Amino acid sequence: MPEPTRDIAKLYEAVLTGNGALAVEVTQAALASGAEPQDLVTGQMIPAMDEVGRRFEHGEYFVPELLIAGRAMKGALELLRPLLAEKGIEPVGRVVIGTVKGDLHDIGKGLVASMLEGGGFEVIDLGVDIPPEKFVLQAKESGADIIAVSALLATTMTGMKAVVEAVREAGMEKQCKVMIGGAPVTQQYADSIGAAGYSNNASTAVAMARELCVA
Ligand code: B12
User: Which residue, among 6, 16, 24, 7, has the nearest Cα to 48 in the 3D structure?
Assistant: First the structure.
């Protein structure tokens, strides 16, 4: 008799120890035994990455460990991404998403992109290290309702202000709202730069995006 709870918990260990092959294997097994993709992400993978961050902060992990943990998470997310997206219903809007200039973190951004797709949005993912003008150009060309910007570094977070300003300079602030997020970002920061929306996780990001589309 399989023990789904114990097996799913292996996903936490696999991400924490950066064991990509095990992360994929456990994810496949969990899905086969009927686990909800969302539970795997929020119950195992995100807590594991939080612990990776804590260990890094305390000098127990170094950059290589961050890197392999990140890869393990991404490998498992590849399997979950289409399933998260499948839950969607009708298209509710178009979002251009990317990680701010100078920042290479893309796991949270990828998760937000998947959840938005799952929430019925059409998503154009520009990737990482995206300058403000590229966000604006893509939004203009695609007629996007929202530009979603992710930042994981306190140093690159300031680049979000440049995105808000670039949208304003292009005269697009009415039709295209800027939504921001990422570990160091706060509601207070969002307000201070004039971003239309902020959310601290992928699920509430979908609700926020919906609100912005009707605003
Ligand atoms: C994995 C990781 C890496 C990997 C990234 C791999 C990848 N492909 O993304 C690698 C090894 C490359 C890396 C590099 C670095 N990293 Co790093 N990294 C992390 C780590 C451990 C996890 C980040 C992560 O993926 N979390 C999991 C995801 C799911 O969470 P999330 O990104 O926060 O996203 C959620 C929310 O924030 C929100 N969200 C995210 N984006 C958006 C966008 C929108 C629009 C919305 C609405 C919501 C939203 O929703 C997401 C899902 O719920 C964090 C520690 C931590 N716990 O945050 C450090 C961390 C972010 N890194 C840090 C540092 C210092 C670095 C380096 C400078 C290290 C170095 N000395 O080289 C480099 C910088 C490279 C660069 N130029 O970007 C620091 C940043 C400190 C700071 N506040 O500035 C952290 C906090 C570690 C620490 N505690 O010191 N890193």
Answer: 16
